[in-house]
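Notes continue from the previous slide.

Worked example: a multi-chain complex. Inputs as given:
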Amino acid sequence: MNEDILFAKDQVFDLTNEDEAAADDMVDTQKYLIFIADDLKLGVIAEYVVEILTNQSITYLPRVPDFIRGIINMRGQIIPILDIRLRLGKPPQEDSLVVVLNLDGTQLGILVDAVDQMIDIDRSVILPMPSHSTQLLVSGMCSLPDGSGTMMVLDCEQLMPHE
Amino acid sequence: MGSGNDILDMYIYETNTLLEQLETIVLEAEKADTFSQENVNEIFRIMHTIKGSSAMMEFDTLTTVAHRIEDLFFIIRENTMSVVSEDNRPALFDLVFQSIDYFRGEVERVEADEPLNKDIDSFLTNINTLISKIKGEEPEQPAAAPPAKAPEQPASPAPVPAEAPLAGSSSFPHALRVTFDEGCGMENLRSFMLVTSIRDFCNQEDFCFEPADVETNPATSEAVSDHGFLLMFKNASDRENAIPVVKSAGSIQDYQSYDYQPAPEPPAVQAAPETAPQSAPAAAKSSAAAAAPAGGTGAAGATAGQQHAKETLISVNLSKLDQLSAVVGEIVITESMVTSSPDLKGLNLDTFSKSARQLRKLTDELQDVSMSLRMVPVSGTFQKMNRIVRDMTKKLNRPAKLTLIGENTEVDKTIVDNIGDPIMHMIRNSMDHGIEETQEERIAAGKDPVGEIILSARDTGSEVIIEISDDGRGVNDEAVLNKAIRQGIAFPDVEYSHREILNFLLAPGFSTNAQVTEYSGRGVGMDVVKRSVEELGGNVSITSELGRGMTTTIRIPLTMAIMDGMEVSVGNSTFTIPINNIRSSMKVSAHEVIHDSSNREIIKALDSFYPIIRARDFYQLSDGFTEIEDGILLWLESGDCSYCLFVDELLGEQQVVVKQLPSYVNSYNVKNFGINGCTLLGDGSISIILDVANLYKAAHGA
């Protein structure tokens, strides 16, 4: 579903840029923040990132799925914390940090192992996942230009609660 | 919300406020069966403002309707209420109510960004018919009364006559120059509004104006603001009639009347105002004209007074208030974080403690003030009910009156906004099912033939209690029970108490009336009331005595933003339990605990048995006491559920600022597990606020 949206966006871009962009061959790039969770390099669109917090004490919230570790108090705002590792079905890790995202007005913190780098990526090099991939939370992938590996594009849509 | 278009927001707010005022006036007037002169002036003023502001917003249909009603009240104002014969009065009141509904509907459309209803002809015809009726029965027409021409005149703006004589000063000798307030804007439209008003009582051929194309040419607004707007009349009496219209129009700075005097060289019309600013003849003719520039008399004075009173009130966007109370809440917490900081332990800080005490006092005060900002009286909501009772009395032909008690009780704005529908529903219910169908029935029961519904509000300090009671038939337990059995809510073989039977009324899908009526009994009734009240953190209960009536009591916490809570700990988690729900706490030993067949724990307290819910088990916490001796039992009560919650320890009582949980976690239905919100503690950590009733439901339901 998110792929549709991505494609749709691309098309719109193509249409608007066709006239002027054709001439000077503009590259359509997007800034990503790459973080690491369970040996995966996951990239999230940098505009979504509100801030990165360390040493947060998370208040346990009962009766929610495991991967929601609880809530934190970020300067008076209550923010739910989703553990990416648990969401991917991996064991949790003690030493982790929180990346606070703002997804269409919904503030959500994700618990990750570490933050890797900030990088500009040409939208056109992001490829869709193989059609039979069962990888959760990921909507696309691309090789990193510096050859340090592959970035998986975090599918923020999947972070939102279903129903 | 409402950030984009301030003017539109203002318009909607203002119009709604005016309509509310209007409704109150008319309801009262209807009781007295007449409009006092004061009322008429007020209605006139309200309609006038609506007309003016609608014209500014270019809502033409609204302008036209408001204009016609203004005309109607103009007649009444000039001739006093005696001009309306007894027979016509109900029609007049109905008409005003209809117009209130019309305006409300349209304003709602404006708010929803929908196109306005263009079809106002039938409504205008109604108004016109009434106007001509009133006029038709007018025995003698005072000179000042508008000629009967008005009703036939189409209310929609007629095209400006192109052949309007431009330099007709000699044929239109009686002139009136109107100047508008500087910078009021849209002078051309304002001028045109004047023209339409005048056209109502003055034949088109009998007057002209300059510039002539104010309606179609926006550029004229500059000319009007520079030179004023010139109205010229054939007859002096028409001009006199025009003066009150001009006076009551908005943003009028001044006007001058003067007569055309044949001069050696006829001055160009454009220059006329400058050449002949003689107001002497007019002053002699009309004292009103003389008085007006000095500040106005009568209605104008009243208007000024009204505006002055308004200045002490300002309207603030609710989101700003929310922000303020959020920040104040943070300040209160930060203050206690600072003053009780562990770093200060063991230090001897006299001055610091003194200042800290002062700070605490001030923050408390600040908190009180910021809370009070959100408090508004329930009167607005209550007044609306008058209208409902009035309409239903007419429709059902069941005379009833509504008595309001404690209208000035103040509650949180959120509550006021959400309590209207439940109250309305209960009132309709009382009218429809409560009050006896015929007066004979009431007389036979020894009651006043006129039914009474009492709507009261009172404030107990921590909660507001709203009661809706009627003196009607009361609830027939047997009928309710039968119905409940038919609906499958109750079981045929079980004995139910009176109270339990009344509770069926609040069950989803229950509706006692066999017939669905326009007002109530759509099968979604009392349960909706119950739900919306519960959403506000309150509860509903019903008491009734057969033949004596029914009382519905709605209890709602005074404010949802702050509450007194008891902090308790279970393992590493902290929970806040509303003090209002706590009956007592007790230490018990293992042998006092009784186990039922399904191995649930039960405890005996004050000659009754109560189930025990262990917070640790219920919330699947990883730590916390398991031995009943180690922890403590909190006896909790909410509505009709009563139980004991087993927790580790009581940490103390505290006033807490309630924060809603992010919608993200609410989407996992935590509310159904008794998790209602959270609050920040002094050290910045989070405590989860429990909802006593939902916790019980989750633990014992299903």
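Summary box: The first strand of chain B starts at residue 174 and ends at 180. Residues 376-557 of chain B form a domain with the Heat Shock Protein 90 fold (CATH 3.30.565.10).
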